[in-house]
Amino acid sequence: MIKKLLLTTMLCFSAALFAQDYAPKNDGVKTINSNYTALTNATIHVSPTQVLDKSTLLIKDGKIVAVGKSVSIPKNAVKVDLTGKSIYPSFIDIYSTFGVETPKSPSGNSRRPQYDAGREGYYWNDHIRAEQDAIAHFKFDSKAAEALRKAGFGTVNTHIDDGIIRGTGTLIALNSNGTDANRILAEKSGQYLGTSKSKTSRQAYPTSIMGAFALLRQVNMDANWYATGNAKEKDRTLEAFIANKNQVQIMEAGSKLNALRLDNIGDQFNTQYVFVGGGDEYEYINDIKATNASFILPVDFPDAYDMEDPFLASAVELADLREWNQKPHNPKILAENNINFAFTTHKLKKPEEFMANVLKAIEAGLSKEKALAALTTVPAQILGKSNVLGTLKTGAYANFLVTSGDIFDKETTIYQNWVTGEKDEFKALNTTDIRGDYTFNLNNTTYELSISGKLEKLKAKAKANDKTLGAKVSFKDDWLNLTISTVDTTKQEFIRLVSNITDTNNFSGKAYFPNGNESTFNAKKVEKENKDKEKKDKDEDKKDSKSRKFFPVTYPNMAFGNTTQPKQETILFKNVTVWTNEKEGILKNSDVLIKNGKISKIGTNLNASGAKVINGEGKHLTAGIIDEHSHIATSSVNESGHNSTAEVTQEDVINPEHIGIYRNLSGGVTSIQILHGSANPIGGRSAIIKLKWGESAKNMLYKNSPKFIKFALGENVKQSNWGENNTIRFPQTRMGVEQVYTDYFQRAKEYDALKKSGKPYRKDVEMEVIAEILNKERFISCHSYVQSEINMLMKVAEKFDFRVNTFTHILEGYKVADKMEAHGVGGSTFSDWWAYKYEVNDAIPYNAAIMHNAGVTVAINSDDAEMSRRLNQEAAKTVKYGNVSEEEAWKFVTLNPAKLLHIDDRVGSIKVGKDADVVLWSDHPMSIYAKAEKTLIEGATYFDIETDKQKREAIKKEKNELTTLMLQAKNKGLKTKPIVKKEKEHFHCDTEI
Amino acid sequence: MKYLKYKLLTFALLLSVIAIAQQTPAPQQTQAYSIEGATAHLGNGTVIENALIMFNEGKITFVGSANMKIARQGKVINANGKHIYPGFIAPNSTLGLVEVDAVRASNDIREVGAMNPHVRSLIAYNTESKVVESMRPNGVLMGQITPRGGRISGTSSIVQFDAWNWEDAVIKEDDGIHLNWPNPYSRGRWWLGEPAGLKLNKKYTEQVNNLTNYVLESKAYNAGNKSPRHLPFEALQPLFNGTKKLFVHVDDQKGITDAIAFAKDNNVKSLVIVGGAEADKVMPLLKQNNIPVLLQRIHSNSNSDDDAYDVTYTLANTLVNAGVLVGLENSGDMERMNARNLPFLAGTCAAFGLDKEKALSLITLNTAKILGIDDKVGSLEVGKDATFFISEGDALDMRTNKLSKAYIQGRDISLESHQTELYKRYSNKYKQQ
Fold first, then answer.
1. What ipTM did this prediction achieve?
2. Does B313 contact chain A (CB < 8 Å)?
3. CATH top-level class for B91-377?
């Protein structure tokens, strides 16, 4: 009862302190404190670039009134002498969820997919939540605030971490003594976005990151349409999105690849996102710089792996080992490239871990000035609050730290954290600093004592007779308690010393011996030790800097990455068997000259000055292999949330760091079409790339790439093998598939007509893309199995007056080869796959041969990251099954897929003027005994069997070095993490992401 | 009208039945044959140019040079310029246990329960599988039909691929028991918020101990009066007298080492490692203990980005050079239909360093030895079954793997299949147009 009463009183009291001045007062007389506080004689870091010695900071009403050396201090000022202490602006975290609970998933887990939104009056997709405001969900969390203040933070911009568009954040001063009336510095501060779905909704779309990107684009377009006032229905989400446009847009990218991808989207809508990074930005620093974006960087630098078990340790990949070494250097590298960045506590388990990680970045070379900026001025500037936050200039909030010295020294103590003029003290200012080296005598033995560590956590070392003794120290209210083990180390006995210290140069006290005897002692400070210590520190630093050696970045930054990117060379292949794929056929003992990335000459006895000559005797030179159907080098295959997803594109999600690229090069593959999967009748758009290992996604794409889209038929699109819960999406039969196509083509036709009429229309990416098909600007590559559906799609296309470009898989193509030939569609098939589904019962390995004989342009594709590197062998199977001539069979993996992809003017054969995408084989290219020795793209060698051997050795060496460093880290007592083995996703058509 | 419809339907059904039925198994060999002039790859590393092979009553009666002046038995077949190979053997295969992967009703691959040594694959083996018959045109003529799943999956049997029923098909009944060795890693329970990757399997020791206890219990049972009967324990008994082999499916070096110790401790007479991705890291151990390895599908991507692109291609060569007995198996995704590519797995081993004839042994004599059927098959040697084929060229290379004849136990088998029939039917359709 009393407790409760007390609590009530306290609450009243604190409320009274900060009550509005027009609020009635019933518990006493009205009091207004109009005093100043003057902090004097401090080293004041006004900003990262301005430091004032022995200066004064004058504050009043939560704001800074004056700062400088000669500030006149009003009479009604409370003075605090800070001689020897420093003042810093307190830190700002602008990617916080402070006081805002992340929504939870609804209970009850129905396994049935949900296709429609759960809300009414908002955007059609539940994961777009621009109308959310963090302020509406905000509840001040005193405990969390205290932890943040201890870590040096004064302000956070908090947000709802949920959804793709997450609505506005809110700017909070971490002042536990105040109320929300003065803690909330800005109600709506920034709009937050990300790529993960809302936990509050089970709406299926988007199931992939590719879908999330498409959705972001469509929301922007819909907002533009809504803003014109032409929309018929009210949409509170779009209204909020439009209203939030003037806010800074903070986008959780989480990785360099996503930052680059999302920056493209931003550019399309004149939005410059501020990205929450992944710490891996240094790997593509030039591209990252080109985004012109500011970054918010988590400092969750990885711990070393525990490498003690060599069996387990073999599961850790080079890229993961390197990351441990390289990631702390990321901020430094960004700073060197003048990329603006702020730090955040995001991703750390506790704010306490924050400073130690920032120190890691400084150890790795980040300047203290930039580090302070990343904690103060940069976040303030990102929020547009530079005038009131981030510095200690007149007029700014009185948000600052009082420290014992350099904030970035690990021995420094934060005494106080002031937020909007309210002080929170962690350690008394007048604490005596007893750190240092001392000697004293006890019973004719000389003891050496060394006290170090942080003021709030002192460490002691003691020595006597050249023996190191166990020592424990505590120091509180000027009373020292020291326990040391006795010189006779065979016994577990201790001497206890007590002293009330008034002079740190010379103090005395009492010693208590194990036998109960007491005596006095007198300790003197020793200065000479300092030099030894400095030397030792230096040595240790040296050792540390050795372990801090920066392992160079490769392109991509993983095993088999290039130290420098391959360059175009002038190369002359001599006396080689050339498979031209042209009317010249197979030329024996011929020469091929490659220059400026092109096939320059084909003939005999060619010469070229300055050319690198490669003896091709006994070897074969062919055009590079082209895989019409690949799912390597992508982060996402299927968007299965809708039955049509023409709005998504593989170009958004190319993953240039997939080892499949290098392995495909080792099998002579130079170009691939990355296709969307087969989860829906109308899938997503393709990316056609060259396997330029080490280049960025953008540089791998074909320039002026032909436009393609994936369609799919059969069991996958009708969800036959998706389990019993997936029986509600239209279509569930082949009958329905036809209707989906007819419906979409009809709608796209009407859309296109409206667009061309000049009347206002809502821009819809999905419709735009399908209209491109109708306008013969985009080509379909359709996953297909049985003859009925193959025939159906051709008939639907004919009704809409266009032609299907390619049937891929096309396992029953041989049953309708004549119809295909008449329609003009090509077939890109497997060599010998069958029996994995009911619809491939009649798939036969003679399919390619029959289609080819019927006049269809035939390709052999992979749909498989392993088999794709043996496509030469797959082509050879058509010689076995169906007696296709070797010359024609070879075209199935080179010229014919080039034709099907409309890139045969550039690649697919060895012809003067075409791109020098060629492969040198050790043997007949379709022999099982053939190995690719060199794979060139545009005259640059991306795979070389000799270089490959060197890379293997280098990988081994570097892994051993890093392993040793990790073992050393563990020995030094640093934290390590257990080894987790990555499972490699082997992407194919049915991959559900 | 209605009647007519039914009549038509019956007719159509009949047609389709004819179309999908398996090729009729060939009758027994009734006369001797002599094949002359081919290059014979014996499977044991030897090649005979211009060879003479004679066989009668299902057995090989002569293997030698055609230059030898010796009477040709029976009908003489000229095979000049062609190549003869012993029938290829697909070990650790599920052929005939599943017809269509995605159709559950056609799936007989995995029984319920962890300890199923008594479960026998043989009786579920479907001799009329369309997938099985598609093996033969590539020279794959025999297989070890193996159940999957659990800790002890069950008992395999070895069959040949031209039979009316499983009793006819059997080469060796109940040849071995298949044990899936505990995995050193377990999957993170992501639904409890753990990372989804693989982490150290904390139950590894417990799982190995459980196995040891199971074996000890079974030994105790078999030493007693066996009442009441315990079917799984009884099924394990032949492991300890050498009449059945123990096939341990394991990839990692620690697991292989532990499995070898387990077999020794428990007096398992004959151990085979299946999978063996890290077998190259324990070669001396394998060699010392005479443990053979059936390498899993070498046409695989390594799980580690750091591995060389050819790490699986060169593995057989490394092991063979170290004196380990190696065979190739093809388990994995779409393994049944893919089993016909077994010869090309061997071809790839040759491309990446192994002698071609030794590569051939990986799918013939080595496998026969590993399975314990080398007294009957695996090489072209007098007294063995006349199970072999004639190819137009190198059978390890897909361009030239073109069979003109194949024999199983001397029987002249059909090389047609559901697929060749469709090929002919549709080739003819377009010719008629």
1. 0.94
2. no
3. alpha beta
